[in-house]
Structures are given as structure tokens and as C-alpha cells.
UniProtKB/TrEMBL annotation, chain A:
Family membership: Belongs to the binding-protein-dependent transport system permease family.
Native species: Mesorhizobium qingshengii
Protein name (record): Carbohydrate ABC transporter membrane protein 2, CUT1 family
Subcellular location: Cell membrane
A GO cellular component annotation in the UniProt record: plasma membrane
Primary localisation category: membrane
Keyword Cell wall biogenesis/degradation (UniProt): no
Keyword terms of this UniProt record: Membrane, Transmembrane, Transmembrane helix, Transport
PANTHER family in alphabetical order: ABC TRANSPORTER PERMEASE PROTEIN, GLUCOSE IMPORT SYSTEM PERMEASE PROTEIN GLCU
UniProtKB/TrEMBL annotation, chain B:
The protein's name in its UniProt record: Carbohydrate ABC transporter ATP-binding protein, CUT1 family
GO biological process, one term: carbohydrate transport
GO molecular function: ABC-type transporter activity; ATP binding; ATP hydrolysis activity
Domain ABC transporter: 4-234
Topology with respect to the bilayer: Peripheral membrane protein
Subcellular location: Cell inner membrane
SMART domains membership: AAA
Source taxonomy: Bacteria, Pseudomonadati, Pseudomonadota, Alphaproteobacteria, Hyphomicrobiales
rRNA-binding in keyword set: no
């Protein structure tokens, strides 16, 4: 008798414990999510409020009369330091710096990964180890040496300008930032691509060799088209990092025309013209955050697995 | 002069010698199978022929031309890989024509070649598909198509069937054999499956530890193994290798096999190999294939030297086409191959016929054949 009923009782007890566990887990997760999303919510809500409402109302309340004015003002009118032309110019500065930096560092990473896995040479492991090491060098420690190097390059640019009429962009702040981010990013992009290509079937490379494809033909026709997942990962990672970078941006382009978005945003908030326009600041911050969000949403769709299916085995 | 000649080929990785002086040759239109257990160097040997691995010393010639230092694409070879290695981003047509594209063949000509190969392999309806949309057998066909379209001097196959299921493997094996027969191409084929080796090859090279153990036709390898390893490796079920001694029976030699709890069997040898007389009273290894050890009614009528002895049957395995019986001789399980309808019961004593014409003998010390 008991032998029959015991398992049933245990089973029902098991279900109860399970349900409680689920409730606790999901409850905690929801709590953390709310906690994490709260600042974003406040920013969004505030950016659509008028100053009156911000000064008199509740921070968490929804805007009573939503307005786009703070966003328009942040984009086109707000003061960054002494110039009051909005943040749009700096937004484009960031784009002009981020896009080349991301593309160059990603392509170099892919090329490095390809060589380190499919064209192994004596000392390849050591080279990779040193590149990994580059990932862990703190930003701060390269600030001054890099400033010195960029200074020398800049002076060389001036010399070129004087002698042959063009500096080839040497000494240009945007070019400098692209250079810094490419150098700093290569460690990470190489790591990503090397690990991806390590699992990439070497027989494909051999087959292409037999087919007569050259080093770069194999890279362009075989490796790259089959690297979409890691390409997307690297682009998202690099884009987010470089777009959000403040330290290098403020150190090497902290003043002047090439100032990127992050530095400009800091200056918007620090510029005091009497009243602190929280709504405009929040709108500016949202604009600064949008591209990384957008990249994630758009590129994430291509974040597919199983692209290699069909190459090898059944 | 042979079509493919390999002379004293050596390959060293650091201190480890993978290939220890390989000498092989193959006539035009021949089918050479390199067979051996994992790590014997057969795939490395194939890769050196393909040019995907460099060689330490030696020479490889195809049609009289030394190809040692040529780039793989310049050797006039085509290779089918174990994993097929189809480019996943290209269609079947793209895969087949990639090599021609790299060599700058005009598009119209490429299309013509694709159509021709697709017709031979019956993959015309698959040309616009991606490899991921193909089944295992179809991928195998496409991989062969990619090799065929080059019309090379030499085809290299690296264990092409090992990823297929058992039934498909048999079908594709026949297909490869038919392809070889109709196109008359020269093929070097690597496998660890000795049945593939026996069925496909015109020449087999059995390899172990970077050395060719025996090189010959399938019949030579099967009937006249030069050493214990070859005898043991080729054939399924494997050759029975029974520890025995050589005795005398009048003025003829006899093979003495120990039985469990009974007096030994003595098999009189009518036409013993000459070398065997030196082993009188000494231990040897007596090799007899399962089909040469059968029920007296099933024994070969015209074999000149058949000896019958009573054996204790331990296990009976009906396999449909044959019945396998396991007995114990010289302390080892010995498999006999009987007719499917042989009336035999485990645990009984039954006379078995030893076809001594087909028997082979090995020196246990050197593992070499006694001839």
C-alpha cells in the first residue's frame, strides 16, 4: 500500500517545490531587470518632458505633454563648450572615426586569424600569445607613449605638408583616433577570428589550394564568406567599444573639430548656462547611445549559427 | 616506365619520421589503394603526392615529370577529401567550377564542363543547391564531380567513403569502381577498410608505421602475405593464426596443433614450403583463412592437400550466407567457415577439413613468412 502511494506523494511534493523555485527565480530575474532598466526609463521619460514638469513633478512619472523639443535642441542647438550648434557635428565625427576603425581592425583580425590557424609558421603560438597579451594592457599605460608617437607622426605630417603639399592625413585627430583604436582592437579581433578559424575545416583550405586559389583568393572566397557569425560578433564588439570610448577620445581629440560624441556629451552636461537642462542632456545621451543599440538590433539578426552546415560531414 | 613513381620518399616532422622510405609505382589507369591502421602514414603519403605536405627526401614522378616541389595546383591532380570539403558558401555548380575559375577558364567553357560532369554523375538537378541542402551521398558525388571536371592525370581519394552509412558506402564503392572502369583514370586511394582495398584496387600497398609492408595485387596480398601483419590485417573474418610446432610424419613434415584436454592434431604436409624443414621441432605460426577451414563436404574438391581433423566446436554463428564455427586450437579461438546449411551444434566434436594448399607459415620471432 505504502509502496504504491509514496512515489505519488513524492511526485506531487516535487511539483510544488519546482513551482516555488520557478517563482523565486523569475521573481528575482524580473527584479534585476527592473533595477537595470530603471535608469534607461528615467532617461527616456525625462527627455520627453518640459523643464517645468521636471522641476515640479515626479522623476518616474510619464510625461504629461510629451515633446520632441529637447531632442531637437540637443541635436541642433545645445551648447558644447562655447559653440552652440548642437551635437550633430560630433555625432558625425564619431561615425567618421568609428566606421573605418571597426572595419580596418576587423579585417586585420580576420587576416591574422587566417594566418595563425591555416598558415602556421614557426613561433605562431608565441605571436598569438603576445597578441592576447595586448588585450590585457590597460588603456592608461599606453596613453602617454601613444601621445608621443602621435605627436611625432603629426610633426612628420606637417613636414610632408610643407614639402609635398599633402600630409596624407597624418596628424589629423580623426586619423589618429582610428589608428589608436585599430592598434588597440587588433588583439581582440585576432583572438575572435583565430578561435573561430581554429575550428574552421582545414580541408576546405587544402581543397582550394588544389583548385589553384592563392593566399588572398582563399581568404576572400573561402574564409570570409563563411565567417559571418564571428564577423558580426567582432563588429558589434568593436563598434560598441570604440563608439563608447572616452579616454582615448578625450586624450587625443578632446578639443577641436574632430571631437567625438562621447567627449561632446560630457561637455554638453558640463556647460552651464544657468539652468541645467536635464531633458536636453538626457536626449543628448540617448542620441549618443542609439548607434550601438541600432548596430546590435540590425546585426544581431545575422547572428546566426550553423552557417558552416554542409561543408563537412553529413 | 610506370605512370606514377615514388622513390625513397621520406617525411620527417621534427625528430619523428612519419614515412621511412616509400617505393611504389603504378601503371597508367591503375588503381592503387594505400591501406593500413590509423597513424601508419597513408594519409601523409597521399598529401605529399598532392603537394599539401612537403617531403624530406625522395622523389615523386607523374608521367615522367618530377613533381616534388610543384604547387598542388600545378601537379595536374585532383583530390577528394574525407570530409568532401565542399565550399559551403557556393552552389554545387560554383563548387565544381571554382578550380576552373581560378585558372581563368571562360564562363561558357566552364558551363560546358559543369554540364558534362553533372551528366556523368547525375547531379544535374542539384547544380543550384548549396552543400547544406544535399544528403551525404549527394555531397560525395559533388566532391567527385569537382575532381572529375579537372580531367587530371591523377586522382587522389582520402578515405572518401568513411563518412557514409554502411549501405551507401557499398553503393558508392561500386560507383567509384564503375567510374574508374569507364573513365580509365589513374587513382590513388587511401582507406583503412581492407574490404574497400580488396574490391577497388589493382594494386594494394599495406602500410604500417611509415613503411610499406607489402605491395602487390589484391590476390597476392590476400593469398601470399609476406608477414604476420599483412596476413592479420587483410581479410574479414581475419586469417586464423595458430601457434603450432613442426613435427615429422614418416619422411614428410606435419603441423602439430594443440587441442584443449585432448591429444594434439597432426596434419601431414604433402607440399610443405622448403623453408619449413629448418623448423622441425620448433614453434611456428600456422595461418589458415576461415574459408580454407571448412566442413569436409564443403571443402574444395580439386585442392590437392586436404587434411581432416576432429575439432571441438565452441560457438556457432549463422551469418545467413555462411555459418561460422569457432573451435580452439593452439590455445586460440579459430574460425571455420562452413556452408550456410551445415548441420553443426556447439559443444560437439565435428570433423573439419584443413585446405593445406592455402595454408601459410610464419616465423614467430621475425614475424616473416616461411617460404
Amino acid at each position: 500500500m505504502s509502496a504504491v502511494t509514496t512515489p505519488a506523494r513524492q511526485a506531487s511534493g516535487g511539483v510544488n517545490v519546482k513551482t516555488v523555485n520557478r517563482i523565486v527565480i523569475y521573481g528575482l530575474l524580473a527584479l534585476f531587470a527592473v533595477f537595470y532598466l530603471m535608469p534607461l526609463f528615467v532617461m527616456l521619460v525625462t527627455s520627453f518632458k518640459t523643464m517645468d514638469e521636471i522641476q515640479n513633478g515626479n522623476m518616474l512619472a510619464l510625461p504629461r505633454a510629451p515633446t520632441f523639443d529637447p531632442w531637437l535642441k540637443a541635436w541642433g542647438e545645445t551648447c558644447v563648450g562655447l559653440t552652440c550648434a548642437g551635437i550633430k557635428g560630433y555625432f558625425w565625427n564619431s561615425i567618421k572615426m568609428v566606421v573605418p576603425a571597426v572595419l580596418i581592425s576587423t579585417m586585420l583580425g580576420a587576416l591574422n586569424g587566417y594566418v595563425l590557424t591555416k598558415w602556421r609558421f614557426r613561433g605562431a603560438t608565441l605571436v598569438f600569445g603576445l597578441m592576447l597579451f595586448a588585450c590585457f594592457i590597460p588603456f592608461q599605460s599606453v596613453l602617454l607613449p601613444m601621445a608621443t608617437i602621435l605627436g611625432s607622426v603629426g610633426r612628420f605630417g606637417v613636414t610632408l605638408q610643407n614639402s609635398i603639399g599633402t600630409s596624407f592625413g597624418l596628424g589629423n585627430s580623426t586619423v589618429n583616433l582610428v589608428f589608436v583604436h585599430v592598434v588597440y582592437g587588433i588583439g581582440f579581433t585576432t583572438l575572435f577570428f583565430r578561435n573561430y578559424y581554429e575550428a574552421f575545416p582545414t580541408e576546405l583550405v587544402k581543397a582550394a589550394q588544389v583548385d589553384g586559389a592563392s593566399f588572398f583568393q582563399i581568404f576572400r572566397r573561402i574564409m570570409l564568406p563563411n565567417s559571418m557569425p564571428i564577423f558580426v560578433v567582432t563588429v558589434i564588439y568593436q563598434f560598441t567599444n570604440i563608439w563608447n570610448d572616452f579616454l582615448f577620445a578625450s586624450a587625443y581629440a578632446g578639443t577641436g573639430d574632430a571631437m567625438p560624441m562621447t567627449v561632446a556629451l560630457n561637455n554638453v552636461v558640463n556647460t552651464s548656462t544657468g539652468v541645467v537642462e536635464y531633458n536636453v542632456n538626457m536626449a543628448a545621451a540617448m542620441i549618443a547611445a542609439l548607434p550601438t543599440l541600432l548596430v546590435y538590433v540590425l546585426a544581431g539578426r545575422y547572428f546566426v549559427r550553423g552557417l558552416m552546415a554542409g561543408a563537412v560531414k553529413g | 616506365m610506370a605512370f606514377l613513381e615514388i622513390d625513397g620518399l621520406r617525411k620527417r616532422f621534427g625528430q619523428v619520421e612519419i614515412l621511412k622510405g616509400i617505393d611504389l609505382d603504378l601503371e597508367k589507369g591503375g588503381f592503387l589503394v594505400l591501406v593500413g591502421p590509423s597513424g601508419c602514414g597513408k594519409s601523409t603519403l597521399l598529401n605529399t603526392i598532392a603537394g599539401l605536405e612537403t617531403i624530406t627526401s625522395g622523389e615523386i614522378r607523374v608521367d615522367g615529370r618530377t613533381i616534388n616541389d610543384l604547387h598542388p595546383s600545378k601537379r595536374d591532380i585532383a583530390m577528394v577529401f574525407q570530409s568532401y570539403a565542399l565550399y559551403p558558401n557556393m552552389t554545387v555548380a560554383g563548387n565544381i567550377s571554382f578550380g576552373m575559375e581560378m585558372r581563368g577558364v571562360p564562363a561558357a567553357e566552364r558551363q560546358k564542363a559543369i554540364d558534362k560532369v553533372a551528366k556523368v554523375l547525375q547531379i544535374g538537378h542539384l547544380l543550384q543547391r548549396k552543400p547544406s541542402q544535399l544528403s551525404g551521398g549527394q555531397r560525395q558525388r559533388v566532391a567527385m564531380g569537382r575532381a572529375l571536371v579537372r580531367d587530371p592525370k591523377l586522382f587522389l581519394f582520402d578515405e572518401p567513403l568513411s563518412n557514409l552509412d554502411a549501405k551507401l558506402r557499398v553503393d558508392m564503392r561500386i560507383e567509384i569502381k564503375r567510374l574508374h572502369a569507364t573513365t580509365g583514370t589513374t587513382i590513388v586511394y587511401v582507406t583503412h577498410d581492407q574490404i574497400e582495398a580488396m574490391t577497388l584496387a589493382t594494386k594494394i600497398a599495406v602500410m604500417r608505421d611509415g613503411e610499406v609492408q607489402q605491395f602487390g595485387t589484391p590476390a597476392e596480398i590476400y593469398n601470399n602475405p609476406t608477414n604476420l601483419f599483412v596476413a592479420d590485417f587483410m581479410g574479414s573474418p581475419a586469417m586464423n593464426l595458430i601457434p603450432a610446432t613442426i613435427g615429422t610424419n614418416g619422411n614428410a613434415l606435419s603441423v602439430v596443433l594443440q587441442r584443449e584436454a585432448r591429444e594434439p592434431i597432426s596434419l601431414p604436409m604433402a607440399n610443405a614450403p622448403a623453408g619449413l624443414s629448418a623448423f622441425q621441432g620448433k614453434p611456428i605460426i600456422f595461418g589458415v583463412r576461415p574459408e580454407a577451414l571448412t566442413d569436409p563436404e564443403g571443402a574444395e574438391r580439386n585442392a590437392s592437400n586436404i587434411a581432416t581433423a576432429d575439432c571441438h566446436i565452441e560457438v556457432v554463428e549463422p551469418a545467413g550466407s555462411d555459418t561460422f564455427a569457432v573451435t580452439n586450437l593452439g590455445g586460440k579461438g579459430v574460425v571455420a567457415r562452413l556452408r550456410a546449411d551445415a548441420n553443426i551444434q556447439p559443444g560437439t566434436n565435428t570433423p573439419l577439413a584443413f585446405n593445406l594448399t592455402k595454408a601459410v607459415f610464419f616465423d614467430p620471432a621475425t614475424e616473416n613468412r616461411i617460404r
